[in-house]
Amino acid sequence: MKRIALSMIAAFCTLCSLQAQQAATYTLKSCLEQGLLNNYSLRITHNEEQISKNNATLANAGALPTIDLTGGYRATLDNTNSTVRSTGVTEKQHNVFDQTVDAGIDLNWTIFDGFNISTTYQQLKLLREQGETNTRIALEDFIASLAAEYYNFIQQKIRMKNLLYAVQLSKERLRIVEARYHVGDFSRLDYQQAKVDFNADSAQYMKQQELLHTSRINLNELMGNEDVDQLIQTPDSIIDVNQSLDFEELWKATLSVNSSLLKADQNTQLAQMDYKKVNSRNYPYVRLNAGYGYTFNKYDINSYSRRNNFGFNGGITVGFNLFDGNRKRERRNASIAVKNARLQRDELELALRADLSNLWQAYRNNLEMLNLERQNLIAAKDNHDIAMERYMLGNLSGIEMREAQKSLLDAEERILTAEYNTKLCEISLLQISGKVTKYLE
């Protein structure tokens, strides 16, 4: 069993060596740059932003006239009975065939409709800005997600290194126990326990290979790599934690540049414009129409056999909607929508304050835990070295040696977890405050 486990560990080490030789090297910045170009979700959001830009036109708001070119043909086939008033004689005509051909160009233009057109145009421009805001939100979410996965990949690599070290320690302990077992210094129980511990560490190391593989796949997917199995090598071998964040500065930045708050403000303005559009129906409207056309008529029994008409026509319409039954209801609902938009904005600000406070507390706690665990690691290494010396001299049992080894590995794992959790808090704090794009610098 030991030989099989050793062979598996050797195979994994060889595989890691080959991967390191074939892998492409990515920094966090290069990962982000490639993701910004290739990520499908970002590309979709950018296209949606382009649609909102295309919609922000005077024509879409109804401010420009419409010009129609029309043409038509109409024919009638009738049987006609006509009674002459003076004589009372009835004249009958059968299959009377009349024809009309017309063509023309018509212009219709709403000159004024109670500020509805101008408000609609302002609304379309604001929707264009909101499209940019949506793109910014998607961009910040993407940067935060990719940065978190990038450092998760580093975390999994460090953990794999730690587990490999654990396998090496267990292997050395198994070698010592096996040698002493054969000369009678250790019992079979000691030998079996060392073998069990070695196999357990080997299995954990192999499981870590799977976790590292999953993280690499996720990172490639976020970057938009067509080959999601692309091997990745990172120059960063540690999780570098920023310990200089300031809460008040983060909160001020949140109030001024947070993209979700900006979108909430835009939603409030959109609701106010909807209210203004409802009120625009309290004003009269002015519409202009004009055209130039040609009409040809052909008659079977008229006094004229045919007639041609062509020329200009035009007019202006002024109107006022006196009652439609819905205006008061729509005005009340629009007013409530404005209030709701403001409440949602205030609710969002409160939620951001709560999230920032919670993340800040977690950030500070993880920093303190990180400093404490670094001190514990020094003590755990010293304890392990002392235990190994006593174990070599036969003054320490295998169980006690295993406990010292486990304490060392647990200390390394706690440091790694604290570093990663602190980094996640840092990323989230920067995202809320609108500063997460600093990772692109």
TrEMBL record:
Belongs to the outer membrane factor (OMF) (TC 1.B.17) family. One of its GO terms (molecular function) is porin activity. One of its GO terms (cellular component) is efflux pump complex. It comes from Caecibacteroides pullorum. The keyword Mitochondrion does not apply. Residues 1-22 form the signal peptide. It holds the Pfam family OEP. This is TolC family protein. InterPro entries: OMP_efflux, TolC-like. It is found in: Cell outer membrane. Keywords: Cell outer membrane, Membrane, Signal, Transmembrane, Transmembrane beta strand, Transport.
